[in-house]
Amino acid sequence: MRISIDQGVCIGAGQCALTAPDVFTQDDDGFSELLPGREDGNGSPLVREAARACPVAAISVEDA
């Protein structure tokens, strides 16, 4: 699985970090980012749900 966050689209709603806190976090400005070492989703079943929860569709998830 490959996860990417479009930083130009992200508004910092934080839905991804709330939905999958083992993969996503927010930076000092409140924008979403992946936790170090979690670029592949680390097998979390909530990654796709976190992408769907993003109100501006800034997260994309692709199968590797």
From TrEMBL:
UniProt-listed InterPro entries: 3Fe4S_ferredoxin, 4Fe4S_Fe-S-bd, Fe-S_cluster_ET
Cofactor(s) required for function per UniProt: [3Fe-4S] cluster
Keyword Transport: yes
Keyword Hydrolase listed: no
Annotated keywords: 3Fe-4S, Electron transport, Iron, Iron-sulfur, Metal-binding, Transport
Coiled coil, from the record: none
4Fe-4S ferredoxin-type domain ranges (all copies): 1-29
Gene3D superfamilies, sorted: 3.30.70.20
A Pfam family: Fer4_15
Protein purpose: Ferredoxins are iron-sulfur proteins that transfer electrons in a wide variety of metabolic reactions.
UniProt name for this protein: Ferredoxin
Species: Streptomyces cirratus
